[in-house]
Amino acid sequence: MAVTRDMDVRSEGVHYQNIEKGPKTPQPHTGGDHYRGALRLAAGCLGLICILQATLNIVLRLYFSFQEGKDLMLTSCNNYSIKTDQLQTQYNILTIEIDKLQTKYNNLALEKDQLQTDYISEGREKEELQKRLSELRENINQPGWKYYTSSMYYISTEEKSWSESRQDCRERGADLVTINSKDEQAFVEMLRRNKSAWIGLTDRDSEGVWKWVDGMELTTEYWLPWEPNNYLGNEDCVIVGYQPEETRPINDPLDTWNDYVCSERFVSICKKGISI
Fold it and tell me: In this structure, are residues 165 and 198 in contact, taking their beta carbons and an 8 Å threshold?
């Protein structure tokens, strides 16, 4: 009986195992399955959102970094533009200064050239003046001649007629003296040394029309009182320093001219101009 019962139990166990190993039948869905699906969906969405958020963060970071770089670049460009404008302004100022300096330089160069020209010209003038001074000294230092106001005067030692005296003056490169001022008359009076002397005044061409040997008519006169009188009828030449025997009124001690016969013999006074 015991063996039979044991066999029955084994048979039932085999049958149970066969039942469990047989094909499974689908189980109906429950609320837990829906919950688990929602969780999986939420987790997926959350992951997607995280990915999008991370992507957005990266994009925003890149954008702001780009914007910041752009702002820095714009700031740098503006600063560069300002510096460029400043440099351009400084360049323009320097250009103006350079132009001014160039103008000053050109003016100084012109002044230098002018000074050089003046220096050369003054050097030539100096040489010319030295040459003329040497010539003047030679003319002034001629034996027997006296210098007075740009002219040289010579009083002869030999008495001759008026015509011979004039010829003698011409041979000396001069002519009988012409007197054009009171000072010159005073100098001639000093030069004659109390001698009567021929001067270059005559009315040979026309009686009473007195002219100097250079052709100029008489304008300044230093006649003795009562002269000229053509006393002998042919007194056509003039001497200076005449001392009449008779007493005459004296108006001026420089009034010493007297008309005289041209053939009479007196010393003479020659005059020649010199260039200064």
Answer: yes
* Residue 155 and residue 82 share a domain: no
What CA–CA distances, in Å, run from 168 to 164, 201, 240, 272? 6, 16, 18, 13
Structure tokens at 81: 């533009």
Q: How many CB atoms lie within 10 A of CB 176?
A: 26
Q: Is the pTM of this model over 0.85?
A: no
Q: How far apart are CA 142 and CA 227, in angstroms?
A: 35
Residue 202 pairs with which residues in a beta bridge?
Answer: 211, 237
Question: Across-strand partners of 266?
Answer: 160
pLDDT in tens, the chain (276 residues): 444 444 444 444 444 444 444 455 555 555 677 777 778 888 888 888 888 888 888 887 888 777 777 778 788 888 888 988 999 999 999 999 999 999 999 999 999 999 999 999 899 999 988 888 888 788 788 889 999 998 999 999 999 999 999 999 999 999 999 999 999 999 999 999 889 999 999 999 999 999 999 999 999 999 999 999 998 789 999 999 987 777 777 778 899 999 999 999 999 999 999 866
Q: Say yes or no: 131 and 156 in one domain.
A: no
Same domain? 107 vs 215: no
Q: Which amino acid is at 151?
A: S
Cβ neighbours around 255 below 10 Å, total: 16
